[in-house]
TrEMBL record:
It comes from the Bacteria. Belongs to the histone deacetylase family. It comes from Segetibacter aerophilus. The keyword Amino-acid biosynthesis does not apply. One of its GO terms (biological process) is epigenetic regulation of gene expression. GO terms for molecular function: histone deacetylase activity; hydrolase activity. This is Histone deacetylase. InterPro entries: HDAC_classIV (IPR044150), HDACs (IPR000286), His_deacetylse_dom (IPR023801), His_deacetylse_dom_sf (IPR037138), Ureohydrolase_dom_sf (IPR023696). Residues 12-268 form the Histone deacetylase domain. Gene3D superfamilies: Histone deacetylase domain. Keywords: Hydrolase.
Length: 279
């Protein structure tokens, strides 16, 4: 998608980041992917064996380049984990592929980057309690299903009640929002929920799905959050993570406003906010 090129380009142009702030990842190894996804599904992705129905469910025609892209995005989120241990926060310009299940993809998601990264951390004893904060307008159904029987990962999804997916899985905490909710209601609900949740879960690592499809301009979302409200959301999440000294990895998630400028500005605000908070 074009936004993945425009976001770093804009941040570099305005001086919010320098080339030293950017890293590139290699494709994730099959060994790591298999901590989360089934061998049969990974084999289909690698060997281009998805059926026509499976491709329609994902929303993309299969290709070797697309599979490699997904493997790179996933490794990018894992690499972000190591940077977050050093600096407190790290951001993947892509990722947030929360509709991917262990054995299938859907909703433009093929591999679940935060799911794979969570299992990587647990497998390598780098974290013992993980909180996934999913504030995309769409429920993180794949992520919820992946960790439904994993007490070391707490999944929290605050999403549009009437948005895709129409069959919701059960996260550890779901907050479905009515159509048309704007800044005040949205931020009040989040401010009443997230601090208590952090105190309850006591995570030593968190992932943040910072989808900007909550914007009032989004063509698929049904909420009415402004650019400023979206930025305040990011400030709330990242300020709490820093306050509690929880390393945090951010994946960009969705954004489908007709004007690409709105998408890029909202995503860039997430990066600007991280730099403002973490210095």
């Amino acid at each position: 998608m074009l936004k993945y090129e425009l976001i770093p380009g804009q941040l570099l142009h305005e001086g919010s980041i320098t080339p030293d702030n950017i890293f590139a990842s290699a494709p994730c190894s099959e060994e790591i992917i298999l901590l989360t996804h089934s061998p049969e599904y990974l084999d289909k992705l690698v060997n281009q064996q998805l059926t026509a129905s499976e491709q329609r469910r994902i929303g993309f025609p299969q290709s070797p380049a697309l599979t490699e892209r997904e493997l790179i995005i996933t490794q990018g989120t894992i690499d972000c984990c190591h940077y977050a241990f050093e600096t407190g926060v790290a951001l993947n310009v892509a990722g947030g592929t929360h509709h991917a299940f262990a054995n299938k993809g859907e909703g433009f998601c093929m591999l679940n980057d935060q799911g794979v990264a969570s299992n990587y951390l647990l497998h390598n004893n780098l974290a013992s309690k993980i909180l996934i904060i999913d504030l995309d307008v769409h429920q993180g159904n794949g992520t919820a299903k992946l960790f439904e029987n994993e007490p070391r990962v707490f999944t929290f999804s605050m999403h549009g009640q009437q948005n895709y997916p129409f069959h919701k899985e059960q996260s550890d905490l779901d907050i479905p929002l009515a159509d048309g909710i704007g800044d005040v209601q949205y931020l009040n609900i989040l401010s009443e929920t997230l601090p208590q949740l952090i105190n309850q879960v006591r995570p030593n690592f968190c992932f943040y799905q910072s989808g900007v499809d909550i914007l009032e301009t989004d063509k698929f979302g049904k909420l009415k959050v402004t650019l400023q409200g979206c930025k305040q959301r990011d400030e709330m999440v990242l300020s709490l993570a820093k306050k509690h000294a929880i390393p945090c990895v951010v994946s960009m998630g969705g954004g489908y406003s007709p004007d690409i400028k709105n998408i890029v500005e909202a995503h860039c605000n997430t990066f600007r906010t991280a730099f403002d908070i973490y210095g």
